[in-house]
Design brief:
It is a single chain. The protein has about 70 residues and is α+β, with helices and mostly antiparallel strands. It has a single domain, classed as Alpha-Beta Plaits, CATH 3.30.70.20. The strands form 2 sheets. Strands 1-4 form a two-stranded antiparallel ribbon.
């Protein structure tokens, strides 16, 4: 069975860095960026895309709808 290819896009300008997604990710694929966005906030990045299973917990948890999961 072929593994689905998943891409997680995080809109750094919508992200306020609340870290809810970071804490619910069972694969620890997300991290806090070293940079800041236009609002002066650190945002979340996909640090380890190879670990992501596309479970959708980060997408579900994000209060700002800054995360999009794309199945390729």
């Amino acid at each position: 069975m072929e593994k689905k290819k998943i891409e997680v896009k995080i809109d750094k300008e919508r992200c306020k860095g609340c870290m809810l997604c970071l804490h619910v990710c069972p694969q620890h694929a997300l991290a806090v960026a070293k940079e800041i966005n236009k609002r002066g906030l650190q945002y979340i990045v996909m640090a380890h895309p190879e670990k992501c299973t596309g479970c959708g917990l980060c997408y579900t948890m994000c209060p700002d709808c800054a995360i999009e999961i794309i199945e390729k």
